[in-house]
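User: I want to check something. If I give you two sequences, will you return the structure for each one separately, not as a complex?

Assistant: Yes, each is folded on its own. Here is the first sequence with its structure:
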Amino acid sequence: MKITGFEVVDLRVPTSDQMLGSDPFHKEPDYSSAVLQLKTDTDLQGISVVFTVGAGTDWICYGIQDLCQLVVGTDLEDFSEAPFKLYQRLIDHHQLRWLHDGVFRMAAGAVLNAMWDLWAKQQQKPLWKLLVDLDPVFVADCIDWRNIEDALTREEAIDILTQRRDSVERRQSEMSEIGPKAYCTAGWLGLTDDQILATIHRLQEQGFDSFKLKVGRNKEEDVARIQFMRDAIGMESNLMVDANQYLGVEEAKSYLEAFRPFDLKWIEEPIARDDVLGYVELAETFATASFDFACGEQAASPVIFKQLLKSGAIKYCQIDAVRVAGVNDVMAIILMAAKYDVPVCPHGGGIALCNMIQHYGMWDQVAVSGHSNTQLVEYIDFLQDSVAHPVATKDGHYVTPTALGWGLDFLPDFLEQHRYPEGEVWKNRSTG
């Protein structure tokens, strides 16, 4: 199968109209994705997304278009025999690597994720099943070990995966219908209490018992909102809060002290995404609190995760499917988390991002950590109608995905209506 071409779509949804997704920094986000469709000389396409929140999506699109020139004309078989070769070709490009992480690494991840999607479709498997079936040595050969071996060696990773092999069939059977346990971000900062309560009640009827809300702009208002949420869900349910990096370290110490009485499960990103020393300091300061710290959705490379995990700074590892350089990087991060016994709780949301992270939750809980006692996978209850195989939940869990690849086949009408700026949704709108 040969890669013959590609299309990149700047896809945006005006979620700012309803303040969905709003947090301290991203006050009026328009949930968006750079959608890559790799064309082949068959009927199959490799599809991936890079989630964004409006302005800047065009930057990602340009980066993806530029990198796709390196895969047009190549054979899928070459990729499937050694995925690390394409990873290295992209990440170590002798000129582009000067750009380092951020847009460059996300664009590289889009290309890699689309190739993994294509391979899974060729093999007639969901992405999680493709990963589960890979030999431990093959997985290790997909990973860039240069800067993480001081935390996890290649041999240790192979050993982790090999030890799990005996229980893989049992775990697949246990998760054949009901997948990872989910939690939902219900408390968007721009919503009213009544709107949040309606969401909570709707999700509770669907079996959810784990909820998150946004905090960070006003301590007194946040404490009142946390109390409101705790009263609404009861003490038996999990409650988490997310500050989206809005605070400095000293400010966070004062701010979070007020959160001690509410039996929170975790505090997510109270400070900058890459302030490892700051997270170490906060972990020490709040060692006796009910909550621990979660971070990772905006950590731009496995090296940042290495520091967060090895230092003991975080107790919940929040991988993102599109922030780092695709499957290869996420494999490394999940394996590091397994070594340090830190639950992987993937960041979800956006446009079709939940479609991707459910596969990582499955791989982790079937073939890596081998259990689902501590992990929660994020879910949002809107924008699930953009693809032909929308995420489904049951009893507060993801329903095990069966669509081939990532399950990212977008509905043509949705793509056409939300293309930016020419789609019908955007033709007569001004943007921020």
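And separately, the second sequence with its own structure:
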Amino acid sequence: MLFDDTYKTIAQPTEGIFRDRGSKFMGYAYPLRSENQVKEILQLIKSQHPKARHYCWAFRLSPDRSIFRINDDGEPAGSAGRPILNTLLAADLTNVLVVVVRYFGGTLLGIPGLINAYKMATINALSNAKVIEQTVSDIYQLSFDYVQMNDVMRIVKDEQLLVTDQHFESMCSCNISIRKTQVNTVVSKLEQVPHLTITFLRTQ
């Protein structure tokens, strides 16, 4: 399969709610840039719902959707975090964290009931989200002599590249964002510019 250079995520935090036999399941969906944000978001939600029984969650990260984690937070194994994650998989979303806060209503729902409740709370939260498509890009740093400026900038303009950072003195450097599917074409053009150093920085 060819590398897919776009992915879907959500534009801003949203929430949804699902009720079953007295229990209340409140779903919170957040755009996520890194795993470091998870702890912070969980603390915020716990401070808003100090009396809740469970705070179950799942996230997917990275454009290739390869990073994920789930947490059942005391619910039976597989009954909370997994259905949240499966809902993210079904919606083909990544860079998203969903936390479902449960207030226990006094009646046990059983594992099928819990799976359904955590899934529905997640669906309801995501149904309120604005889904956006992002492009996967590689960031490269270009270093060159001032005299090469026109050659470099012509390629940047022709290929409609985004310059994310630039310093133009006697030695120049700039960071450019190249869409994944364009990388080979653009890099081969840049390699033809004399005395230009190209350094790969990261994928985003």
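Because they were folded independently, the notes below concern the second chain alone. The mean pLDDT is 94. The longest strand covers residues 23-31.
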